[in-house]
Protein: Amino acid/polyamine/organocation transporter, APC superfamily
Amino acid sequence: MHDSAGVGADRHDAAEQGTVVTPSAEFPPLDDAERAALGRIGARWHGPRRADDLPVDPTPGRRAGRPAPTRFGRLTPIDLFTVAQPDELVATGAAHLPGNRFGRAVTRIRRTLVGPPLASSSVLYERMRKLVALPVLSSDLLSSVAYGPEAMLVVLVLAGSAALGLALPLAALLVVLMVAVGLSYRQTIPAYPHGAGSYIVAGDNLGRTPGLAAAAGLMLDYVLTVSVSVAAGVHAVTSALPGLTPWTVPLGVLVIGVLLAGNLRGVRTAGNIFVLPTYAFVVVVLAVLAVGYAKAAARGFAPVPPPSVPATEGLGLLLVLRAFSSGAVSMTGIEAVSNAVPAFRPTEWRNARTTLGWMVAMLVTLFAGLVGLIHLDGLVPRADETLLSQLGRVTFPSGPGYAILQATTALILLLAANTAFNDFPRLLFFMARDGHAPRRFLHMGDRLAFSNGLVALALAAAGVFVAFGGHTERLIPLYAVGVFLAFTLSQTGMVVHWHRRPGPGRRRRLAVNAVGATLSGLVLVTAAVAKFTEGAWVVVVAVPLLVLLFRRIHRHYATLHRALALHPPPPGPSGPAGSAEGEELPQQVRHLVIVPVARLNRASLRALAYATSLGRPTLAVHIAPEEAEADRFREQWRAWGDHLRLETIVSPYRSVIGPLAHYLEALHSSRPELTLTVIVPEVVLRRRRHRLLHSRAEQRLRAALRALPGVVVTSVPVHVSQ
Structure:
């Protein structure tokens, strides 16, 4: 009750903003200053004709007849568009099809893999109910119990089998940590119902750099989640089928590809795919615990002595801390719900908080139960078989129980990466919205999934998986630092959040987040120090480098925004002479049209005719390799009628692109207020194979001229039918 009252203002603000995860996020609105500048610019706009004086009806749906079919008619039939309003057309599904055979074949393959496209309005229905969200978002968290206890015991056994007795007190501390962090994130969800978790919380309360550090930690965590989950899943498969061990890396890459294809089908479809394996894993592990503890009860809960293992390291504080931080990887994924609040059905924050509560309860039950049962059965880690596999053989010595356990374990481990596929693209979306990541990550694909983010995650995870050979034990040391960095910054940010917002229950909520921040910080420092030489140094170095990269990206977008932002028009009727690229009014534009002409043929004459029809000063330029060819071209020009001014440039080194680009740059330097419009004649070949027979000088010329300021490059195509 107090939680609802204490964060009512936050939820109200978020409700007023609406969901921020929409296809329109790629097109941010103008701010008040730009709107005012836009109005002042429009008041001084003097065009050559009225805006509605057009030679063709721009709304083809109003026409009674249908245009005659042409070779390119499939691109322009009227039925590709419908009229929604007098000044608005809506593109139908057919309008999205490419106009060539290759493009249509690729589209058919893509739709077979990911399904038909969804309309933008369907984003409101691509939400998950709690029964679907629980397995989708908890698959990473719950699957970690398959390797988290083993990761802790692998370190303890280095001090000999006698050190395994420390597993129970360490597990108790980890349960306290799980509950504390879980309660902290339960408070974060209603306070920040728009999602993005640690990145938004740390950025809002601690500053931009801590927010970016939290984002960097989360991104590394998500990439490692995919790599570790797939590695552990493949290891579970090879434990049951040792003959597949040489195929570890190809199998892992194949699984990542399957996960990518499944998630490209959209949030709701992917959720339905991954529901059953998670629930099946939970049920089977609970059955293992029930049968195992029943057998232990029959012998009076007397632990089975573990086999003797010689010590290779001394039992010291550093080894215990390493074991604790290794076991803490069982908590990875606990932040997933706070990142994906907008993916829930309304009321989003309430459903998300309930789901998180169930996730933490299931995690504590499975983790504590497995550690206790492993201790009672006297099991020790082995290189050739996972601890969960050993436990399954002891619990189900006969019958299908062991096979079912291994199948469900392998399946959930392979699909646990789906949590990262849900949250990584969403995190990139929020970062791109703030200008700290490339804006392409704002784009939603055909199925309203963040396709670019999904592909980026799959490529990064596959690269890490291949680089480490698919070995789980090599990846685990990299795992805890990034995620606990995000935990620590998020919970510290929530402490500042409650400190700034007085209200009923503030001290209690602040204390809960303070405990979560303190415990997470201790694990972070422990993992960074204890596992630094084992590979944690990679994350310690990568986080500041990623933060620097994010800041550079933001600086670029800030510079771009300042360059493109709307400003009030300069004083005077047309404004002072200056850069041509600073002109915003038609009456300010001073044209010079330039047509590069290599030879006089139908393509060049059409370009010259088009340029002259614009009614602006026009100059033709010819690059000749020697004087004789220059004289010959001038003679042909006079035979044509010498209708336009011709400038001939002799290039004795036979280069064309360089001299022309430098010539145009010299013209622009002498009159920077001029807009140089370069019209390039271009021959368009119908068959792709014929392009190899041509130099494509037009393309190279366009590429060279596009870099020049104050120069507009356009082309006049001439289509060749064969």
About this structure: The first helix runs from residue 2 to 6. Residues 1-19, 63-67, 69-78 have pLDDT under 50 and may be disordered. The chain has two domains: 131-557, 590-719. The chain is about 60% helix and 5% strand.
